């Protein structure tokens, strides 16, 4: 390719777009992330109606929540690698709307089996933006400018589960459980988005200039094996790369704790405080507040401990991103112990609601920090697959935990059930500290780490006195 052709490609580089254009192309996927996650929790307040209409137990009725979350679990395994091969736009423009159609189908289904099947495929097809948006962020913003955009799009899928019960509580109470599905369809369309993946844009520019011909040996069998390899990348990364496994495990457990509230709140607040279904939904606003506060908190941490050092030194290790996770990790056990021992009749209901603020704050602060960390480590090429691998753990646990939550709280009591979760999060606090100590070595060993990340590791090793 000639220098003039490279200049043409660079002039179309998404990182050189205007702020307005960048904001729109990251804002729409962020909205899709909000809607996809909203679709999971908006169903939770409707569980009593599902029990009544289909004559099933609470655990069976909760399968509607779990099946959707399982769809969210497996959807990114396909959407992430496909986005890296064909670009980000097909996921937003074609795949996500299919999920919304299955959501509508769930509301019309006359049998529970149909509801569960539609809920699964609704989650499966709606899940794409949850992993692809990280790649879009990497396409649009350089590392030192990625903090604000990442904070916004990561906040959206955490706000969704918090706002869902608020909407679902009053909608199901007034209109029935079917309307918890139908209210989502208005967000299915995507207008005016453009492709952001540099590899796809370069390929298009080369084809337009007639400088690239498809090799004769490019057969359909080669194409199929290539696609299969792309689909397996997230699973391979999860089980072969220690950084991906550890960050996924930590984020998954924190996220699953939030999803346990969808099953525990309808037990705790009506029985302990006599809340109605709609009032129980309002109790989730503590999670929403914590999620909102987490974004500016992390931005301050990121600016002080990543952006400023990077400007002074020219480059810093990706491990500089971990400070947010190391600080945020303290909030999860603190909030869980607070919630566990104040959710009782002689304590005002505001106390357990406020206790969820540091839980949600810690959950999202850790997630943003580790999300930026793995994006810096794996770069544009594998960041979407890494987030897809993270989604396996995160949504698999989130789908499973609500199914045993009721039994756990009934057998152990609110105090010890909450404390058990708190003790586990104390142990998981070691993850960001371990990555701070050994992350550089693990990056050097990873075959998926970006060239820039590995290069920094090699340069650091060369100048190290050790």
TrEMBL record:
InterPro entries: MFS, MFS_dom, MFS_trans_sf. Keywords: Membrane, Transmembrane, Transmembrane helix. Gene3D superfamilies: MFS general substrate transporter like domains. Residues 25-442 form the Major facilitator superfamily (MFS) profile domain. It is a multi-pass membrane protein. GO terms for cellular component: plasma membrane. It is found in: Membrane. This is Putative bicyclomycin resistance protein. It comes from Aulographum hederae CBS 113979.
